[in-house]
Amino acid sequence: MTRALLVLNVGSSSVKFRVFGASAALPLLADGRVTGIGSAPEFALHGETSQSLEPETSQAEAIERVLDYVTSDRHEWQLAAAGHRIVHGGEEFQHPVVLDEDVLSRLDRFTPLAPLHQRHNLAAVRAVAKLYPDLPQIGCFDTAFHGNHDLVTRSYALPESLRRQGIRRYGFHGLSYEWAAAVLADDPGGAPERVVVAHLGNGASLCAIKNGTSVDTTMGMTALEGLPMGTRCGALDPGAVLYMLRSCDLTLAQVERILHDESGLKGLSGGISDMAELLRQTSPEAQLAVNYFILRVAQKIAEMTVSLGGLDLLVFTGGIGENAESVRASIVKRLAFLPEFAVRVIAADEERMIARHTLGALPDH
Question: Which listed residue (134, 142, 216, 312) is catalytic?
Fold first, then answer.
């Protein structure tokens, strides 16, 4: 039997999973997902034809389907642990942690800070625990890599009474940045001192990494701040939110939906959130969305460069960062005023980073 690690990344309508061998090399044994939960769910393995599931399949049932696959006798895998991507760890959780009901209850408090992700992440842990109560489960946090930011970097210019209630900049995409930093550290010459990593995808942010440590990032208290994204607005005058509530006849729930689901590339283009599709379009709206994205990313890279005191290497990762060559080139062109710096593409692999943490958390490792 091969000892195996299950890595889960669970959202509102999907369950992404990978299975790794529980050894230092972390060989990839399986890569799959359940998509379309709530509409037309399908189970798919990389390179294989997808299988339709019952239309009413719930998230918990999708996770059960994944576990049935992983624990099937045909694989000869012995499941040693499950590792989870959990978006928000707050100030309290800055390292991977063994998940039990006490920890989950503490993590529930951060759901308002990541309303699109946190409750689904935690529901997945509980679903696995219900089916396999003795299976160790490890939580890995997207906020953790940014946990050592100094007071100036992590603060908002708000009264202390509010800052004491947890209103501060946390940052996200930490597992992606941690993976990029690990790849650079493994280079023969080691990582450059001053690196900006651009995680550009449907969710997008930047991280300033100095000597392997995050010193600044563009996302803040929630994943709405910073760069424009597929459907999220990015940086926005808070007065605009007040105006929407006071003068545009919108409810709080409507404003929240607009900021999370109807803005960003989708809002600028009139309905298209996918960068690859936008690059194929010739409409003024599509061009506006692409050019806006390029400008804001370049501006924020310059901001991260200030936090680093210079720039040695710019790394692109994520779906747009890895695949949209013309977008990368346009961003770099806008930064031509900076002293010379290197540019590199690193494939995102948050799941392998989670697997590393999960393996390291096992008592017999």
Answer: 142
